Amino acid sequence: METTTTARPSTERTALQRGLRNIPVIYVVLLIVFIAIAIIQPSFFRPLTFLGFLKRAAPILVVAFGQMYVMLSGEFDLSVGSLITLLAAIATNTINSDPANVGRAFLFMFLIAVLVGVVNGLITTQLRVPSFITTLGMLLILVGMAWVITKGAPRGSLTDNFRIFGRGNIGDIPIAVLVVVVWAALGVALMHFTTFGRRIYAIGGNPVASRLSGIQVSFTKTMAFVLCSVSAMVGAVLLTGFAGVSGLTVGSGYEFQAISAVVLGGVALTGGRGNIAGVIAGTLTLQAMFSLLNFIGFPLPIRLTVEGLILIGAVALAAWRERRV
Amino acid sequence: MSATTTNARQGGKLSAGNLIGRIPTLGVYGVLILMFILASIFVPGFTKPQNLTNVLQHSVVLGLVAIGQTFVILAASLDLSVGVMISLIGVATSLLISGRVSMILPAVIVALLLGILLGLINGLIITKLRVNSFIATLGMMLVLEGALFSRFDNFAGRVPRQFEFLGYKTVGPVPVGVLLMLAVAALAWLILRFTKFGHHVYGIGGNAEVSRLSGVRTDRIMIGAHILAGLGAAISALFLVSRLRTAAPWIGKGLELDSIAAVVVGGAPLSGGRGSVWGTIGGVLILSILNNVFNLLAVDAFLQDVMRGAIVILVVAFYSARLRK
Q: Are the beta carbons of B309 and A128 separated by less than 8 Å?
């Protein structure tokens, strides 16, 4: 952010205050939520319970990472929720209670995810349709396809060797958590140690300058969409593994949850700024807040209201901080 | 139309500035007429008066809320909360009336006030808290949805026969609802075309910074646009309740995305500054005819979603391509 410290000694008293001001708000909010939970339901922090919490948060974490790539490049992907629903339906139908089919299920899911990402990317970059509209249309298309494939009722069920990713443990550590850690690590490596990552930040920060300096904006953005869809696939595997059934509403609303988590994590809506740590913090804050509401005993839909208030509050706060400088 | 100011960028392919501004609307009605002709020829039962009346009736709900959304999109903003607003206002109206004729007028007034209030809040969050409109209205949508669903999960309230005139009566061959929609559209067109407010809406959509520097109170214009979106939702809710004879917390679900699709199909780019109310009405009719044709052809309900999604994307791509020339 800012460092005009030498020019304005009267507003910045100490290095500590400056440092504190620079901590993204989300970490503070996360801390506050955790403290509140510690007071109301301290058993939440017992290792096994906490790992269970992380396991439940794993699918949305992975999906949020994917959404982050797209939003960093300056676009939106509203279709991830219905993509998850479709992939879940495909997985259930392909596996059809037979463990031998799991490999094929993964293959189909991967291919469809890549295809959707490519189509999203191409329509947005080549046909110049705003990503909002593109992915909105894609959302309808994918939901429709999910229904057409399953005719309303998914056939068969998922086998254990598929569900182990979302449901299984290695010792005490949930495999889902390991998947998240690996995916996050890959993401950090991608964004901070490869040219591709830097290009995404550049495109989000200043699309015109990026194009003029020779960056292939279309290719990079399309790749971002593909990363998003593949992340959705991983999320779908974790989610259905955990939940077991693949209802037709499995993924609904996920795109907005993911976008909320990403924005809370400090990724600017116009792109170009933000990182994985922030997204993790944003997602965990939301999930912890939901748990907190549960502990207090609020009715289920209230979590939506709280999510909305936090979202508005966090973005307003970030905007306010920007202006103070 | 005030689209002349943005046409300098077009490269002056056509000399009449106004004509370029009108092309999207002409194009929309061209598509509409084409669809009408094709449907009349190829779809049995399309031209039956009863069917055409149905199409018009179904257009009213979407049309009313899309008119409000038009103001917002013209101002380069977005309102994702209108769907939930409709549900909320619908439930409130239905409950207030509860079958009593004497409560109809107060309920209508309350409904309109609610729409104004909610729109005002959206506008204030966007202008005073400086929250991006996508996030602000997404947050508002979540807040309202949570509040609504935690209190209601089923149908609520009843509406007496006297209120049904909105939804069911006709003046000659034309349903009252259609007249209402056309009247609201005409009013909206007058505002946009002949008032300073209307011109400023186009202005802040075209270039908010320049408008502000020229002395336009951009905040007020933006708030005004969102208030009109709220009013559109309120009127739509009243019509919907009249037709349903009751209300439920989900009656508005999806209408926010549908209204955005209608505005965009009607030729107004999401970037703002261009478009017209009549274009939006054209977009609404296109989507309604599509719906109707799919039903008449007995297309699977969810295949309809697939095709609708694809068509929205294609139409917007088509407009973008033409603008690029």
A: no
Domain count, chain B: 1
pLDDT tens-digit readout, A183-219: 999 988 888 888 888 888 888 888 888 888 888 888 9
Interchain contact A139–B (C-beta under 8 A): yes
| A140: contact with B, CB 8 A cutoff | yes
pLDDT (mean) for A221-229:
94
**Residue B260 covered by a domain:** yes
Helix (H, G, I), strand (E, B) or coil at B54: helix
Note whether B145 contacts A305, CB cutoff 8 Å.
Answer: yes
Q: Write down the CATH number for the domain with range A25-33+43-324.
A: 1.10.3470
Q: Is B303 on the interface with A (CB under 8 A)?
A: yes
Domain limits, chain A: 25-33+43-324
Q: Each residue of A51-110: pLDDT tens digit?
A: 888 888 888 999 999 999 999 988 889 899 989 988 988 888 887 777 777 888 889 999
> What end-to-end distance do the CA atoms of chain A give, in Å?
9
Burial A38-62 (b: 16+ CB within 10 A, else e): eeeeeebeeeeeebebbbbbbbbbb
Contact B270 A137 (CB under 8 A): no
**For residue B15, is it within any domain?**
no
Extract the tokens encoding B113.
């006030």
What is the ipTM for the molecules in this complex? 0.77
d(CA A79, CA B306): 13
Cβ atoms A310, A302 nearer than 8 A: no
Among chain A residues, CA nearest to B126 = A316
Judged by CB atoms closer than 8 Å, whether chains meet at B130 and A308 is answered as: no
Q: Is residue B14 part of a domain?
A: no
Task: In whole angstroms, give the CA distance from residue B164 to residue B240.
Answer: 10
**Containing domain of residue B311, as a range?**
23-37+47-324
Residues of A in Cβ contact (< 8 Å) with B262: none
Question: Is residue B6 domain-resident?
Answer: no
Q: What is the pTM of this model?
A: 0.81
Buried b (16+ CB within 10 A) or exposed e, A214-244: ebebeebbbbbbbbbbbbbbbbbbbbbbbbe
- Compute the distance between CA of residue A137 and CA of residue A127 in angstroms, rounded to an integer: 14
Averaged pLDDT, A298-318: 82
A260 touches chain B (CB under 8 A): yes
